From TrEMBL:
Pfam families: DUF973 (PF06157). It comes from the Archaea. It comes from Saccharolobus islandicus (strain HVE10/4) (Sulfolobus islandicus). Keywords: Membrane, Transmembrane, Transmembrane helix. The chain crosses the membrane at residues 16-33, 39-61, 73-94, 100-121, 133-155. This is DUF973 family protein.
Length: 268
């Protein structure tokens, strides 16, 4: 819980820094518009460098926040988007030397905005905060991204409130007296740690959460022995809102056509 709150604080700070950088950049452009003689002055150069510096620091904080939050929500798209955005900004910095970098940098900034905005939208969707979802949409549009980031800054408080108000689930582990049914925990990042019982040794062919068609990314170990077995399975959970504390059924198919069943408790 604490790490998720800190992650949201980092994302919030990143949004604020972005907005401040845009304000500084706009003020600089207004000064240039009114006093064209200052266009190539040292004063304008300093302000532009300050704006770029604040922007890069802000997005570094946001990237850290997305990475920290990946334990709760799949925010890897946002992390990648921040990396692409930063590369785009660096390309724009050298656009005066090599003009083609202006087009490359602009394209990368747009792609980064779309990926970051999508992740902000998913955060709002996950915690049912409509203002955060609106902020994500505005960031994805790119031209309205500065509005989206400042809305996200204020919406982050509501997201954190909802996270703190959410009932804390006690760690629950089902230990079944029926050895034909295993038990385990399914985490929101797709990690499943399972205990199952097999009649004989065999290779694991597949594993799936019954009623869903999630891709299985990893199974370790890939064989079971006769008796109790502890297995780690990684699922690509996406598009489904599981309820913390609810039980979901797992089916493991073995090469000998034996099917092992397990009840998994879902946790954030």
């Amino acid at each position: 819980m604490e790490s998720s709150i800190q992650a949201l604080k980092n994302i919030k700070t990143g949004s604020l820094y972005y907005f401040l950088a845009i304000i500084i950049a706009l003020v600089t452009e207004v000064v240039i518009f009114r006093e064209k003689s200052l266009a190539n002055s040292f004063f304008v150069l300093i302000f532009e460098l300050v704006a770029y510096g604040i922007l890069l620091i802000g997005f570094s904080r946001m990237r850290t926040g997305f990475f920290q939050l990946s334990k709760t929500i799949n925010t890897y798209i946002g992390t990648t988007g921040v990396n692409i955005f930063i590369i785009g900004i660096v390309a724009l910095l050298f656009g005066a030397i090599l003009p083609i970098l202006i087009y490359i940098g602009g394209s990368l900034v747009f792609i980064g905005d779309v990926m970051i905005g999508y992740t902000i939208y998913k955060i709002g969707q996950r915690f049912q905060v409509n203002t955060e979802k609106i902020a994500g949409i505005l960031v994805m549009i790119s031209i309205t991204s500065f509005i989206g980031y400042i809305i996200s800054y204020f919406a982050s408080d509501e997201v954190m409130r909802k996270m703190l108000q959410a009932p804390r689930e006690e760690k629950l582990l089902i230990v079944s007296s029926d050895k034909s049914i295993g038990y385990g925990i399914l985490k929101s990042n797709g990690d499943a740690n399972v205990v199952v019982y097999s009649k004989e040794s065999s290779e694991i062919i597949s594993a799936q959460i019954m009623g869903y068609n999630f891709q299985t990314l990893q199974i370790n170990p890939k064989t079971v022995m006769a008796g109790e077995n502890r297995i780690y399975i990684k699922f690509a959970l996406s598009g489904v809102m599981f309820v913390p504390g609810n039980i979901y059924n797992l089916e493991i198919l073995l090469a000998n056509n034996e099917k092992l069943l397990a009840s998994l408790v879902y946790e954030l």
